[in-house]
Amino acid sequence: MAPFEVLTAADVQLMQEVAQRVTAVRPDLLNSDATFGELAWNWGKGHAAEGAFWPRRLWFSGGEPVAWGWARLPHRVVRNDGSVKDVTDASLTYLVHPDHAGLIDEVIEWYEGVAVGTDRTVVPSAADGFALERWAAHGYRTDPASLGDTGDWTQLNERDLGELEHPVLPDGFRFRTADEAGAEAAVRAHVDAWAPSAYTAESYRGVRGTAPYRGDLHVLVEAPDGTMACSTIMWLDEANATAEFEPVGTHPDYRRRGLGRAMLLHGMHLAREAGAGHVTVACLGAPGHPAARGLFMSVGFRELSRDAPLIKPASAE
Q: Fewest C-beta atoms under 10 Å: which of 89, 92, 209, 231?
């Protein structure tokens, strides 16, 4: 395995610059982990525990970042219920500005170097025909695990904020922000929605410490008994006047009551007040995962793009 530099908070901001410039010209080229908000969320929640397994490289032109790669190497994840998940393959999130599309081969070669000897996965956008050709030329093929009704490929969805319904909560429920509810409630809301989870108070401190995080755009729904029934964070990209929901989760005991729908509509009103004219959200796209997709479509989202999961087994080297 080649020596590598580990991803830093400063690197993430440079990567977000590339994401913002790609968003302005070809948002369909963004895979679901390469967006402005996903970069902040994934870095914030995981860097303290997993950052030592995160090689990165950035490419510049005229002093500006124009491409980057962020690999995640095999590691162990300990979750809050005491269970352990061993991640045995390497994965790559990357982005190349379309004006510098030829850099994709350098990204691939760098990834091959830092993840040698492991199964390697990557999720380019299905709209990026040139990149798909280059990945294929390097021996990457469609990941069989992503096929079928329960495949794990992701689609990115969008809508504008021109016309918005008024959000309606059941009696006794109310909207809160993380600034109002506090850190403990914000962490509990996420852990309850995504259990078992590796998310901790330390994870949330990392999220709060990212440059674009705003506690007033971190929305929760409080139940009459004080339980935080659902929550979401909105990441405001001021340069493109857009906001991204990530994550979106509901406590299992409070699902199918319209709370998630109301929270998304409320969040869109807040995003518009903050200057956004457009919002995005990602979800699993395969037919066997209809719940989140149906929720997002019910509040006006439509598919913008989808990932094309690829794999190259270590045995193919």
A: 209
Rg of the chain on CA atoms, in Å: 19
Helical spans, DSSP H, in 120-258: 129-137, 178-181, 183-194, 201-208
* Structure tokens given for 22: 């790609």
Side chain identity, residue 12: V
Alpha-carbon 186 to chain mean position: 18
| Residue 196 preceded by cis peptide, ω within 30 | yes
DSSP, collapsed to helix, strand or coil, labels residue 300 as coil
> What is the per-residue pLDDT across 24-56, written as a single tens digit (0 to 9) for each?
999 999 988 999 999 999 999 999 999 999 999
CA 267 vs. chain centroid, Å, equals: 17
Task: Scan for tokens 């793009």, then name that residue.
Answer: 305
The burial class, CB within 10 Å (0-12 / 13-18 / 19+), for 123 is: buried
pLDDT number for residue 2: 59
Q: Is 299 helix (H, G, I), strand (E, B) or coil?
A: coil
State yes or no: pLDDT of 10 exceeds 90: yes
Question: Cα–Cα distance between 30 and 209 in angstroms, integer?
Answer: 24
Largest CA distance in the chain: 60
How crowded is residue 68: how many other Cβ atoms within 10 Å of its Cβ? 28
Rounded distance between C-alpha atoms, residue 311 and residue 146, angstroms: 10
CB atoms within 10 A of CB 52: 12
What are 307's strand-pairing partners?
Answer: 125
pTM score, whole prediction: 0.95
C-alpha pair distances (Å), 106 with each of 6, 13, 89, 134, 252:
18, 21, 21, 11, 44
DSSP-derived letter for residue 89 is S
d(CA 269, CA 267): 5
Cβ–Cβ < 8 Å for 286, 144: no
